[in-house]
DNA helicase-like protein (Xanthomonas fragariae), 169 residues
Amino acid sequence: MYRDLDPQNWDALGGLDAIPMLRGVVQDGFPGASLTDENSELDHIIPPERMRHVVDCDSSQALVVHDVLQGNNILVQGPPGTGKSQTIANIISGAVAEGKRVLFVAEKMAALAVVKRRLDHVGVGVACLELHSNKANKRSLLEELRQTLHLERVMNFALVTLTYTDEAS
């Protein structure tokens, strides 16, 4: 995998600098709009009725989801068990609810499986088209395409109506 980042292998595409997302990951970071301040009151940043989290998350994970759905590119790193797959599942769910397409790539098959399982558990997995090695055969690909094409914007989260009530008032 490290050979893929050799600049000589990118000449046909204009070099690594020609691809902003990759340049951000391996060189410059992601300049632009600053990320949401972690010390801010979460309810003032993300109104509860706009939260589309389908799996549990803490406030820092909610801010990452919010920032990504606002169009920011973010690299999330951490040791096992720190909630990365939960965060990714919430990002994917939120993007799908907004009618966006998502490409989720992971080095390890286990990471793909964990996120897919979380999405399946909450009914959003039907929007996923799995193209990794053990699922990549013509029959399963066509069946997944058929299922996905017949979905209506993945329930648009309309089948589940959440009502926010302010208990303090």
In short: The helical segments are 20-28, 42-45, 59-69, 84-97, 109-121, 138-149. Residues 153-169 have pLDDT under 50 and may be disordered. The longest helix spans residues 84-97.
